[in-house]
């Protein structure tokens, strides 16, 4: 369970870092292309995070 939390926090920090980077790019570059990139990145992150949590959860022995 702790491993899962660490993965989750790391993933969230990565997402935040990439989001702020994307926001910076959005401010300094063409808005359309950038919005598209943020949108794609957002979906990729969600899919990745879901797969990661599922993977970790399945590997952890279930404690009730």
Structure write-up:
The chain has 64 residues and is mainly α. The chain contains two helices and no strands. It has helices at residues 2-28, 31-59. It is elongated. The chain starts with a helix and ends in a 5-residue tail after the last helix.
Radius of gyration (Å) = 15 Å
Structural class: mainly alpha
Q: Name the beta content range.
A: under 5%
Total helices: the number is 2
Largest sheet: none
Mean pLDDT figure: 76
Span between termini: 11 Å
* Percent in helix: over 70%
Low-pLDDT ranges: none
Number of beta-strand segments: 0
How many structural domains are formed by the residues? 1
The SSE order reads HH
Q: Write down the overall geometry.
A: elongated
Transmembrane segments: 5-27, 39-58
Keywords: Membrane, Transmembrane, Transmembrane helix
Summarize the model shown.
With 64 residues, this protein is mostly helical.
List keywords for this structure.
transmembrane; 2 helices; membrane; mainly alpha; single chain; elongated; 64 residues; transmembrane helix
Show the helix and strand layout.
Layout: H1 2-28, H2 31-59
Helix pairs in contact: 1-2
